[in-house]
Amino acid sequence: MKRIREQYGPSAIGALDQDHHNWGIVGYRFGSYFRFFNTIGFTEILHNPDSWEGWHWGAPHAYGFYWRLGMSEQNDLLEDALKNSDVIVYWAIDPDTLCAGYCGMESNIWWQWLKESGKKQIFIDPFCNYTASIMADKWIPVRPGTDGALALAIAYVWIKENTYDKDYIAKRTIGFEEFKDYVTGKKDGTPKTPQWADEITGIPARTIEALARNGVQKERCSSVAV
User: Fold this and answer.
1) 194-201 vs 147-160: helix axis angle to the nearest 10?
2) pLDDT for 138-156, tens place per residue?
3) What's this model's pTM, rounded to 2 decimal places?
4) Distance CA 147, CA 165 (A)
């Protein structure tokens, strides 16, 4: 760094603090970062607005309200789940591992409340993650990269059995008829049935059907084979 400064000047030295600048010593934006680089002279490199700038300032314009940095409160989601659900599906999420993330991810005790309330908790994840190993009524190990096929097969059951939320579809979505034609095979000749998804995802068709009907049989995570 001294050589580059002497030969090319301080503008040849660029420094970039990491996005959330909350950890470390030299890299900590409000620690010794500026003191260190100001000592030798440098060009500060500003990264793109990829985090707080969009979360804190941009999101309210997109969502239409200013609430918890543009995000709805997790507390409200928990209350809603406790009051109005019978089955909770965690798709590719491990809350115990992510409990220290932004937005104050739910405390571990919340999952215990859900379990004690008798609400069924289903985990879809290739890995029997740390929350699932304790809290799961059912662990569904999906083959990595095939989640889309699983979602299509679930939609197929809903459409064929006429159990999807028609009011929500009518008021909150566009393009449903085209999607429906694709799922049922009218568009490409391939119905996205649970049997079709079975071979792709590695999840038995009967499990996919039960998941779509919210009737997954209680089974310990440790007894399910990948």
Assistant:
1) 170
2) 999 999 999 999 999 999 9
3) 0.64
4) 21
